Each structure stands twice: as C-alpha cells, then as structure tokens.
Amino acid sequence: MVGDGHIPGAKLLSMPELETSDGVRIWYQVRGSGPPVLACQGGPATVSDTLAKTLTPLENSYTVVYHDYRGSGRSQTAPATTYTFERIADDLNELRAHLSYERVSVLAHSMGGFIGLSYALRHRRHCVGMVLVATTPTGRPAKIALPALRALGPTRTVRALALGAWYVAAWSWRRASTDKQTARYAAMATTQEGAPLARGKVKALTGALPPNDNVPQLEKLFARTDLTDRLGEIRCPVLVLYGGRDAVMVVGGRLLARGLSDARTVCLPEVGHEPFIEDPKSAFPRVRSFLATLDYGRQCT
C-alpha cells in the first residue's frame, strides 16, 4: 500500500472501490468538477498518485478520475493472465459506467497510452477524445530502437548503454528486489531525462518504484505490443504531447501523428518524460485548449 492519495487543497469527491465483472476490487478516486476525464498513469511500477499530483491544475475545470490498475497499489491482485492492456481498458470502461458517465475523454501518460489506445479501440462510442502524453503506439524494439538512439544523440546513448551493461553485469543475476528494479530502469530513465534543472523536481514528485504484482506481465507486454497498424481505426480527436528529450516517445509521438486520423501534435523541445512536472506553463495550456474543443454530447463512431 502507498499513501491515501489526498492532495492538500484539491476537492476530493470520493475514494471508493469498484468490483469489476470478473470480481477484482479496483481502488479509484474522483477529483474536481466539470466534464469527465479518465486518467491513465504510466508504469508498470507506479500507481495513480503521481499523476494525481501533477494533474491537480486540471481539476478546476474537469472531473478527473484516477484509479490504481488491477495488481497495483490499493487495487486487488488478480490472475496474471488478466494483466493485459485490453483488460485494464475494460476495467476503465466499467469504472466509467459505474460513475454514470456516458461519454468521457481519456488522458494517458507513458505506458498508460497503450491502455488509452485500447480503450478508444474497444469502447469508441464512449471516448470523445484523448490526450496522449509521452507515449507510443508500439514498444517493439525492432521498430523503435534505432530511431530512438538517433533522437537520443551520441552522449546520452553512451550513458544509456553503459547503464544497461552495468545492470547485466551487476544486477541481472540477483534475486528480485526494489534495488534491482531501480537498476533495470536506470538506462530507460537516461533516455527520458529532461533538462538538468528539471531533474530534481521530477525525482521529488515521482518517488520510489512500488513493487506491483502486475510488473512482470506488463513489462513483457510493453515490448510485444504494436498498435501502429490500428491507429487509423481511432476517429476521435487526439492531442499528442511529448518532450523533445524523451527519445523513445519522440519516435512514438511521430508514429501517433502519422497514424491517427485526427491528431494535433505538440513537442516541447527541452522537456523529457514528465511535461506536466518539467514545463507546466507550456503543457497545461495546450491540454486545456484541446479539451475545450471536445463535444461530450457527440456520438462517437
């Protein structure tokens, strides 16, 4: 368990649980007021608290719904076979129905983009629009590794490769632990880091990596998932927002922009993986402006 998720000064409407159709208890909270936005955090070694902290400014104009995915945080563990992006997207839709929202927008960060895209594909009539932040439609190394290295540049590439080699030599053979998990993510963190002045702020807000039950399954799925060829099926408007220093998501953002039929793309040049933390003055106006264009009364197709 982590903290109760409460952020001082924010209006907290509820912190109950939903029991899904397959009997898994999902912890969630509803914050703010206005049209509903379903928030999907990254991960898999995370919970909804970090995104709830960073999205507080949206709660003045929107009702933002957060939840811990099955097998993480305060939600119940489940059979490993159900730790899939499709099943989590279905959980999200059951949460929408539970809260009596007919149509919603989805804001997804990092790995949460797979859940947001799956939601738009599986439950499209309820999704009026999406904000995809620092995310990608594919995690397959063969598709993104070389373009990501080009986006990373030589200096950061050397650092990332050195950290990867250090993990293999010093940690890969050890028993599972939080320290091993942190070491495994170190190379990826190098590809995501923003400008030097922002790194301390990101570290302070993102905190330690929780040992979620769903981590092994979702990590494997991340590397196998490729929704690129299905992007054309998504007809709702989408804002694609990413940082120019977030190498993998620079590649992912370009793939999303090419494949989606109604995409608006924003790249924040000196920003890494956490636009809302690193450059809120640039990120939030873009998101607010986009969300204001969505028609929650429109029938989605």
Can you describe what's shown?
With 301 residues, the protein is of the alpha/beta class. The protein folds into two domains: 12-142 and 211-291, Rossmann fold, CATH 3.40.50; 152-206, no CATH class. Helix content is 42%, strand content 16%. The protein has eleven helices and nine strands. The chain has helices at 49-54, 85-98, 112-122, 141-152, 154-170, 178-192, 196-206, 215-224, 247-259, 275-278, 280-291; strands at 12-14, 17-19, 25-32, 36-40, 63-67, 104-109, 127-133, 238-243, 263-268. Strands 1, 2, 3, 4, 5, 6, 7, 8 and 9 form a nine-stranded mixed β-sheet that branches. Strand 6 (104-109), helix 3 (112-122) and strand 7 form a beta-alpha-beta unit. The longest helix has 17 residues, at 154-170. It is globular.
List the helices and strands and how they pair.
Layout: E1 12-14, E2 17-19, E3 25-32, E4 36-40, H1 49-54, E5 63-67, H2 85-98, E6 104-109, H3 112-122, E7 127-133, H4 141-152, H5 154-170, H6 178-192, H7 196-206, H8 215-224, E8 238-243, H9 247-259, E9 263-268, H10 275-278, H11 280-291
Parallel strand pairs: 4-5, 4-6, 6-7, 7-8, 8-9
Antiparallel strand pairs: 1-3, 2-3, 3-5
Helix pairs in contact: 2-3, 4-9, 5-6
Quick tags:
301 residues, alpha/beta, Rossmann fold, 9-stranded mixed beta sheet, 42% helix, disordered N terminus
What is the compact description of this entry?
With 301 residues, the protein is of the alpha/beta class. The protein has eleven helices and nine strands. The chain has helices at residues 49-54, 85-98, 112-122, 141-152, 154-170, 178-192, 196-206, 215-224, 247-259, 275-278, 280-291, and strands spanning 12-14, 17-19, 25-32, 36-40, 63-67, 104-109, 127-133, 238-243, 263-268.
